Amino acid sequence: MRLPLSRTSRVLAGLTAALLLALAWAAASGALGISLWGLISGQADPLSIQVWWQLRLPRLLLGVAVGAMLAGSGAAMQGLFRNPLADPTLLGLASGAGLFVAVWIVLFQNSGTGSLYGQFAAGFLGALCVCLIVFGIAKRQGGGSAAVMTLLLAGLAINTLAGAGGGVLAFIASDEQLRQLSLWGMGTLTNALWRTTALALVLIAVALWLLMRSARELDLLQLGEATAHAAGLDAARLKRRVVIATSLGVGICVALTGVIGFLGLLVPHCLRLWLGPGHRLLLPASMLGGALLLVVADTLARTVAAPAEIPVGLLTSLLGGPYFLYLLMRRNRAC
Question: One of this protein's GO BP terms (predicted)?
Answer without folding.
Answer: siderophore-iron import into cell
